[in-house]
């Protein structure tokens, strides 16, 4: 495909896009005017297709033409183009599948967060009850009695039971 043909395709697809003028190509039939005060051209007016230029055909038709062509170079390039188009289709499909998987993952993460939040709301709140005795008094008694007790934390049940027995039942 020639540069002139590419520029014609760009003009047809995006007529309102401003483009920097390309240098003139002497062997093309398409002549462009570059005598403007701005280095950028404004929106281009749609041009009538040239009847002397190549006829635009679909990619499938072009590949079929290349396949049947008698010149080996044309046939080989057609086969290469068909192979590359197949690879592009596979890459596009994989990219679309990946985008769908990402969207599904985001939806599931949001749904999981909502479920976890609801579970947390429904779970009974556990609060450890305060001991029904004065821990400092039990520790002091245990140390006088020669029993091992930790400086912090909960007291062993055996120490608490011994304290209750020694102090006539203690306050329950």
Work out the number of β strands.
0
Could you give the order of the helices and strands? HHHHH
Report on the biggest sheet: none
**Strand portion:** under 5%
Total of DSSP H or I helical runs spanning 4+ residues: 5
Mean pLDDT: 80
Shape: rod-shaped
Structural class: mainly alpha
User: Helical proportion?
Assistant: 40-55%
Amino- and carboxy-terminal Cα gap: 96 Å
Question: Unreliable segments (pLDDT under 50, ≥5 consecutive)?
Answer: 29-38
CA gyration radius, whole angstroms: 42 Å
Question: Describe it for me?
Answer:
By secondary structure, this protein is mainly α. The chain has helices spanning 3-13, 59-68, 72-122, 135-144, 157-166. α2 (59-68) packs antiparallel against α3. Mean pLDDT is 80; it is low at 29-38.
């Amino acid at each position: 495909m020639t540069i002139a043909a590419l520029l014609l395709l760009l003009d047809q697809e995006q007529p309102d896009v401003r483009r920097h003028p390309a240098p003139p190509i002497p062997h093309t039939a398409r002549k462009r005017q570059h005598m403007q005060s701005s280095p950028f051209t404004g929106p281009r007016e749609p041009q009538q297709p040239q009847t002397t230029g190549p006829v635009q055909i679909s990619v499938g038709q072009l590949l079929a033409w290349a396949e049947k062509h008698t010149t080996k170079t044309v046939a080989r390039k057609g086969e290469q183009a068909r192979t590359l188009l197949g690879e592009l289709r596979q890459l596009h499909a994989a990219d679309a599948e990946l985008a769908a998987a990402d969207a599904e993952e985001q939806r599931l993460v949001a749904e999981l967060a909502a479920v976890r939040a609801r579970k947390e709301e429904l779970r009974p709140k556990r609060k450890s009850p305060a001991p029904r005795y004065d821990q400092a008094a039990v520790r002091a008694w245990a140390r006088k009695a020669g029993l091992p007790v930790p400086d912090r934390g909960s007291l062993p049940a055996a120490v608490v039971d011994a304290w209750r027995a020694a102090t006539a039942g203690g306050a329950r």
